[in-house]
Amino acid sequence: MSQASLAGPRAKNRQFRWNRLAVRTRIVITLVVLTLLAVLASGLVSYLLQRSAIQNRIDDSLASSIEEVRILAAEGVDPETGEPFVESDNLVFTAMTRHWPDTHESMLGLNSSGITYRANEIVPLRLEDDAQLVEELMSHADPDKFQQDVLLETISTDQATYRAAIIPVYFADDPEPSLLVFATDYSASLAELDAIFVTYTLIGIAVIAIVALIGSVTVGRQLSPLRKLQATAAEISDEDLDRRVPVTSEDDIADLSRTFNEMLDRIQSAFRSQRQLLDDVGHELRTPITIVQGNLELMNSRDVVDVEQVREISLDELDRVGRLVEDLMTLAKADRPDFVSLEAIDIEAFTREVLEKASRLGDREWSVDAATQIVHDFDNQRITQAWLQLANNAVKYSDDGTEIALGSKVRVDREEGTMLDLWVRDNGIGIAETDTARIFERFGRGGNSTRAEGSGLGLNIVTEIVRAHGGTVSVRSTLGYGSTFTMSFPLRND
Ligand code: ADP
What we know:
By secondary structure, the chain is α+β, with helices and mostly antiparallel strands. The protein has helices spanning 3-20, 23-75, 88-98, 131-141, 186-235, 252-298, 304-333, 347-358, 380-396, 458-468; strands at 105-111, 114-118, 151-156, 161-169, 178-185, 343-346, 365-370, 375-378, 403-413, 417-426, 472-478, 482-490. The chain is rod-shaped, with a radius of gyration of 53 Å.
């Protein structure tokens, strides 16, 4: 098996675990990691800066010590003779008595035969005690290798690391050159810095712990509405859709809770209307079933006339059931996006075509009130279906020979804008004002209607078809004089 195929599942597994952690844990971990990075970065940078500052300070201090000796050699007076210095040994001695070492600094005088002068006993750093250092310094005091330049060197021994200024002291008339050494224990200065950074590390750990603690509490508090949301969602079942998430703040989590509650409102109303639909459909189906069952039970199968009558009733009722099922299926499709497929329609010709089809619905005086010359996007089949449904109703609720007129026109309304109206006007029985809202509801029948006259879904289907075209349906009616049902569609104002 190749290396790559082995790495795949393992990487996936790691990601899976991170995703499974609670959001609160993930946020707290992220906070802790970021704080750790900040503490580490600032600690490291300031450590390195401090370290180089220490090095510079030591070098500056050594440089000024070198300068002191240079001035002493050039301008000083030997206290023994009162004359300028002529012997290196004297200059070294005088320089050492006048120099006061810094912390971790000390000095040593040497010549080829060994150490000539040590620092005063109160200076804690004893250079002469570090044999390796002395050996290294003695190598510079060797007259054969004697160098005339001042050396600034870092010398590491088993005991310490020193930064040392090795100053050669010699005079023309003095056969014995000397070395004056100023050295600082660099490792001791660094140890002090390290001690400071141990404290820094401890404080850093405490800061990270505080960040984790405060972060965990704060994030927990911030996320508590989400937990309530989750708990509410878990408790909600289709039996109990009344519960809502309490909204107590104004932030984005409150927005989420509000959106969730709105979604619950919609689900609840969808559930209600679904239940209502089942109740309504059950109710509508029970009647034909009862009629067919009752008739079949009482039918005398030897009586041909009775059989014929029951057969007719049964077919009639089954026909009604069939129409009901078809209407329900049309309504079920109404919410789908492919419910209407639009095409440009010449409304004037369309008005006359629908009138032609409607006139076959019954023996009435059919006419056209108006036919507007406009081309509009409609689903030809669906709008024909809706318009014929209105015409069919007009036939159902009017007497033979009365007038039924279809019409289309463009109307400009101050509030609605430009509208295209398609209507059916009849001189039928009319509708009581109290019924005008109810008749548009599912299975809503007016007081003027009997069960025999329809499924009660006709206007509902008309409304759904018109709504799918962005329009509305309205009715104007006078009881005893007739009704006008109008489908109104907004026209684009271009
Ligand atoms: P139905 O199958 O009962 O006709 P509809 O939804 O088509 O169902 O109509 C609902 C109710 O509206 C009818 O029961 C009737 O009371 C009333 N209605 C519809 N059209 C007319 C009309 N042209 N004249 C009088 N009443 C009407």
